[in-house]
Amino acid sequence: MTKIRSYRHFAAISGLVLALSGCTDGSTKKVGEKIDDASTDIGNSIEDTCEGIKDTLSADDKDC
Fold it and tell me: What pLDDT, in 10s, does the model give residues 18-42?
């Protein structure tokens, strides 16, 4: 009984690994690049807003 259970676990894990390995195509990379670009754009926007606020308040330190 224990051997059968071990074989079932092995088969289930092997199937999962094979299913997940099929997800490594170029579309996943493109999605990751889009997320990177979006996070960079958001960071730049926040920095621009911070600098604008500091300009409006005539702050001595303009770095954000």
Answer: 666 665 667 777 888 899 999 999 9
* CA distances in angstroms from 18 to 5, 11, 44, 51, 61, listed in the order given: 20, 11, 40, 49, 55
Distance CA 32, CA 34 (A): 5
Contacts of 51 (CB under 8 A, 6+ apart): 62, 64
Give the 3-state secondary structure of residue 62. Answer: coil
Structure tokens at 9: 């676990």
Per domain, the residue ranges of the chain are 2-56
Residue type, 36: D
